[in-house]
Fold:
Amino acid sequence: GLGKYQIAECTSTSETQCRDCVAGKASMGGAVSECTLCDGPGEYSEAKASVCKIAPAGYKPKVAGDDGLKTGTEICPKNTYSIGAADDCTDCSDGGHSNPGESSCE
Structure:
């Protein structure tokens, strides 16, 4: 099913067994043996996701734990910005400024 991956196929003596994708990975289901890592620019996912999401403008993916999985979003801090679909917020240049969560600097 969506947001799951297969750990054992259906046989004459057992049903197909599946596990949920962890946050930071996604699966459209089917006969996949692992979930796809959400590692493209600005990509992230919650647990049991069928597709990776893209961080919107003013946000960046939140990295959780030592494994570097991107499991949600966090707001860009003051004096930084993001146009979206980016792994990091960009510092305002030349004395520019912004409020948290902005898509550009003033």
Q: What stands out?
A: The CA atoms of residues 81 and 92 lie 7 Å apart.
